[in-house]
Amino acid sequence: DDDESEFVSDIRWVRINKVKCTRDDITKVIPELKLQMVDDLSDVTGPGKCYIDPYIPYLFGLHKRDKLTSTKAYLEGSVIIQDRASCFPSHILNYNHVHTQVIDACAAPGNKTTHSASYMDLSKDPESCVYAFERDKERVGTLRTMCNKALNKKTHLLIQVTHADFTSTKPEEFPQVTGLVVDPSCSGSGIRGRAADAVDHTRLQKLANFQFAIMKHALQFPLATKVVYSTCSIHAEENERVTVDLLRDPAISQLGWTLASREDVIPRWERRGWPEEFRAIASTEAACERLAAGCVRSNPGEDGGIGFFAACFIKKDDGSKEEE
Ligand code: SAM
């Protein structure tokens, strides 16, 4: 499930950790690599070439043969390796509006936790906090290590790690949380390349049930206005179908949840959700397209990294059901 993927790609995505490093110029942040900027991702043909990602702020594409992990910036946590698509959830969450308090429901090893924290500014908003939950005992250790590395003395309060099952949290105990990132365990088929060869539908259905339950809990937080659901799976069962099942659950639609429109979900990213999967809840092609546009997909191999899916749930102000 981690972002250090088994999937073969020559690009290694790295983001400047804005919690720790105020500089924007990657060539100065990692001077050892003597980076030269290139205009196109396909120009990153070998070490020393660097591409500025147009979708995610402070994200850069380097060649995997660059000796990044021995640089000072990497060792001290000023830069963090994170696949581009895996940066989508925290970016979507904070697009147009930075949340003061957010929850990362399934946090280890902590890529999205530390990325969510990087949008916050304690000096502007002293109540800023990412509540990170992880239920696995060993993985919570990895999460703590990653968060400690990404924070410093001034910012250590930005992330609060809790070893717990997220579904056992009480939503009313987090009255200030307005946004959640939900990235539950999945088949990992977007990472393990040729997963399409042997699809185990029974396993996918079990995963989908679990993903649905975690998301249903996330959608109960009283002040939450945005919840981003994501997987590193390529299968509709874990992606659009979980999204559709949530949207047609009466308890959820009654709360006013719907999908965000494209303009709020990395609008320039071309690959969106699969419209045909929304037929169960939308009667026209246009309505299917509109719902699918509230989701983004990334294909392994084609889109510069791992296979990924994200759907952006937003709560409508009046809590009434949207007309189709
Ligand atoms: N978001 C992480 C990142 O970007 O680094 C990756 C998360 S990984 C896909 C899913 C994680 O959720 C696993 O570490 C798993 O142990 C944890 N998890 C699964 N069910 C959970 C639950 N009910 N509550 C909290 N954590 C859970």
Automatic annotation (TrEMBL):
GO cellular component terms, semicolon-separated: nucleolus
What is the superkingdom listed in this entry's lineage?
Eukaryota
- Which residues make up the binding site for S-adenosyl-L-methionine? 106-112, 134, 165, 183
Active-site residues, Swiss-Prot/TrEMBL? 232
MF terms in GO: RNA binding; RNA methyltransferase activity
Which key words tag this protein in UniProt? Methyltransferase, RNA-binding, S-adenosyl-L-methionine, Transferase
Q: Which residues form the SAM-dependent MTase RsmB/NOP-type domain?
A: 2-316
Q: Which family does it belong to?
A: Belongs to the class I-like SAM-binding methyltransferase superfamily. RsmB/NOP family.
Q: What is this protein called?
A: SAM-dependent MTase RsmB/NOP-type domain-containing protein
Q: Which organism is it from?
A: Scheffersomyces spartinae
